[in-house]
């Protein structure tokens, strides 16, 4: 059943012109109500082709009503659960593509929230790939620990099988700048494919091939060179940008402003031609000449500064390293430090950066462990999955990116739990003067590469448990973020319970009426009874939601026309569904489009699953409020399981009172038994 609902949900979104064409979504008792950007992009015939769709009704120039009947809430939840529809809340409009989107809880330091949200939403779409690649690395590190292969050996010296396995994880980390270029541009509102094309130019064989004829300029790091060639008569640095995320992030920011300017200069009719053309023409050279070298220069400058600190005091360096890394890694500025580590091991036989770096890694993993424990308590399954993947990749593979991008950058309070762990671990590392004797990922499996191993173990344990305890005591979210998440979890749990209740109710057989019996349903409110074909709403008038009667009310209270049970009661109070003891399912819908009144003017007197007696009040409504809101107050009384009966006939009248018969329902005749031969 769930898969059918999800399939129909995707079918509806696709034939409404895709998620980008949907501006907002709400639902009432029987139908999904969409606002679309371009009504001509809707394929109404294709929508109608799904048996679950009872009808499609355009409304105005931007509205589309998709009639789903009593199970509308299940389809509404399924549509909101689609990846392409994330962030479209009930009744909330989603901005059109091309505008910056900032959501979530805000503090008084708005610019800090924007920065964290930008980085978080830039890396969040790539998180799945990062987690997958990280666990492949974890497997390779385990193979190294068990002696099957040497993880750090040059690829050309490894068997083809391991070369291929390395290619599997490097596909994500090496080309990460291209992914980040796309997601950062999309977050800001620029074209994501242009954002990806800019860093991609720096990965082409043509760009890398220019290194063959470039000039080699020695750097401050022994054995490291900068390659420079002349392009357009200007010096261009040719470097390997694999894994560098600073250049694409900065390029995406510049692209956003450039596109905004170009769209003002050129008329809309030629935006598709000239905006990407000029954007690429400007941004690729700007990134290659300025943005890329600038990012590399910052990283190299930090590397030189750390070398100077170590020459002055190794203890101070051991404290600085873990406190600095949480700010370097998000921008990819930590990569140049790897060159120093390799040079140190080659020239000195040991390295002074990797040991203290372990304090940062394990403080990070401690935060994630705390998040995992809290998420398990709250039954926050999405965060449990992120934390589990990040913790496994960290503890076994020494990979911090999934934890960083999946948790730390999403919740800025988590840094306040992270940094104390970094500090405590760094102090212990400095006290023991921890050094690394191999270039390794700092995980549980690589402890033997550190000396003294006991001092290193104490340091990473202190970092881990300090940050984990801080998360468990103070949480990793602000109070507002915590409340927002808890409200979402409670809403999801309530929705799941309601869906299960509805499934059970729907599965339970309704009481059967005796063969051929005619049952008369009485008016649930006073007024003028008219045929539903006169109702100014195509969905009701067509009988797609069931046959019955419409009543133009003179009273203000809806009562139960017979004994039964409440199946549904809308929160807005404008509709109620009943299962009568005689086997008839009844939908009573007060007014047309009154769902838009959001409950104003309506009072409900019953709850879902409540047993009611004939004459019990169900809903009280204010006819003047409905009129003032601009909606008809005509009330539909429909037999929603019409197909189970031989006939459902309305009984129109100029005036009906409570108890006046308004609908005649005839039970189906049982098929005659075959005569004996």
UniProtKB/TrEMBL annotation:
Keyword Transmembrane helix (UniProt): yes
Keyword field: Cell membrane, Kinase, Membrane, Phosphotransferase system, Sugar transport, Transferase, Transmembrane, Transmembrane helix, Transport
Main location: membrane
Compartments where found: Cell membrane
Molecular-function GO term, any one: kinase activity
Active-site residues from the entry: 28
Protein name: PTS mannose transporter subunit IIABC
GO process terms (BP): phosphoenolpyruvate-dependent sugar phosphotransferase system
Alphabetical list of PANTHER family matching this protein: PHOSPHOTRANSFERASE SYSTEM TRANSPORT PROTEIN, PTS SYSTEM ARBUTIN-, CELLOBIOSE-, AND SALICIN-SPECIFIC EIIBC COMPONENT-RELATED
GO cellular component: plasma membrane
Domain PTS EIIB type-1: residue ranges: 6-89
Membrane topology per record: Multi-pass membrane protein
């Amino acid at each position: 059943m769930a898969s059918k609902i999800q399939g129909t949900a995707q079918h509806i979104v696709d034939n409404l012109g895709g998620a980008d064409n949907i501006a907002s979504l709400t639902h009432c008792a029987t139908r999904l109500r969409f606002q679309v950007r371009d009504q001509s992009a809707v394929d109404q015939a294709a929508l109608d082709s799904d048996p679950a769709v009872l009808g499609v009704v355009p409304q105005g120039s931007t509205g589309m009503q998709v009639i789903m009947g009593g199970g509308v809430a299940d389809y509404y939840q399924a549509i909101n659960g689609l990846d392409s529809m994330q962030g479209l809340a009930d009744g909330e409009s989603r901005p059109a593509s091309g505008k910056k989107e900032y959501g979530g809880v805000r503090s008084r330091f708005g610019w800090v929230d924007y920065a964290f949200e930008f980085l978080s939403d830039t890396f969040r779409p790539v998180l799945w790939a990062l987690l997958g690649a990280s666990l492949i690395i974890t497997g390779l590190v385990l193979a190294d620990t068990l002696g099957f292969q040497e993880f750090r050996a040059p690829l050309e010296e490894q068997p083809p099988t391991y070369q291929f396995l390395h290619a599997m994880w490097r596909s994500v980390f090496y080309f990460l700048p291209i992914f980040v270029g796309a997601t950062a541009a999309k977050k800001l509102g620029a074209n994501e494919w242009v954002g990806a094309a800019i860093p991609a130019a720096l990965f082409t064989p043509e760009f890398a091939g220019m290194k063959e004829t470039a000039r080699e300029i020695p750097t401050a790091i022994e054995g490291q060179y900068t390659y420079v060639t002349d392009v357009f008569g200007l010096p261009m640095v040719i470097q390997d940008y694999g894994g560098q995320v600073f250049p694409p992030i900065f390029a995406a920011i510049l692209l956003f402003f450039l596109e905004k300017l170009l769209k003002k200069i050129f008329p809309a009719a030629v935006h598709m031609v000239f905006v990407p053309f000029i954007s690429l023409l400007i941004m690729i050279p700007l990134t290659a000449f300025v943005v890329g070298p600038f990012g590399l220069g910052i990283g190299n400058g930090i590397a030189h500064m750390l070398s100077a600190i170590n020459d002055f005091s190794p203890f101070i360096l051991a404290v600085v390293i873990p406190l600095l890394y949480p700010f370097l890694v998000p921008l990819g500025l930590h990569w140049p430090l790897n060159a120093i580590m390799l040079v140190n091991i080659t020239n000195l036989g040991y390295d002074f950066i990797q040991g203290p770096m372990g304090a940062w890694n394990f403080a990070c993993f401690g935060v994630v462990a705390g998040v995992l424990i809290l998420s398990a308590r709250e039954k926050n399954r999405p965060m449990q999955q992120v934390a589990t993947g990040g913790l496994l990749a960290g503890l076994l593979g020494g990979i911090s990116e999934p934890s960083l991008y999946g948790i730390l950058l999403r919740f800025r309070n988590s840094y306040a739990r992270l940094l104390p762990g970094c500090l405590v671990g760094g102090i212990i590392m400095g006290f023991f003067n921890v050094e690394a004797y191999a270039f390794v990922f700092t995980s549980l499996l690589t402890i033997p590469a550190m000396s003294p191993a006991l001092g290193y173990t104490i340091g990473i344990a202190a970092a881990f448990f300090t940050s984990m305890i801080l998360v468990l005591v103070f949480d990793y979210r602000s109070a507002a973020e915590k409340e927002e998440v808890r409200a979402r979890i409670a809403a999801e749990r309530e929705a799941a319970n309601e869906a299960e209740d509805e499934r059970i109710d729907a599965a339970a057989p309704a009481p059967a009426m005796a063969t051929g019996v005619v049952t008369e349903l009485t008016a649930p409110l006073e007024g003028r009874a008219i045929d539903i074909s006169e109702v100014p709403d195509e969905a009701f008038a067509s009988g797609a939601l069931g046959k019955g009667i419409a009543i133009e009310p003179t009273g203000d209270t809806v009562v139960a026309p017979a004994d039964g049970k409440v199946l549904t009661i809308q929160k807005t109070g404008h509709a109620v569904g009943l299962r009568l003891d005689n086997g008839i399912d009844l939908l009573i819908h007060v007014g047309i489009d009154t769902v838009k009144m959001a409950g104003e003017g309506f009072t409900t007197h019953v709850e879902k699953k409540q047993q009611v007696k004939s004459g019990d009040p169900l809903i009280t409504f204010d006819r003047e409020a409905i009129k003032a809101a601009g909606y008809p107050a005509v009330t539909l009384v429909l037999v929603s399981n019409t197909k189970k009966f031989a006939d459902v006939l309305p009984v129109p009248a100029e005036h009906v009172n409570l108890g006046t018969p308004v609908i005649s329902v005839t039970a189906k005749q049982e098929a005659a038994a075959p005569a004996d031969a």
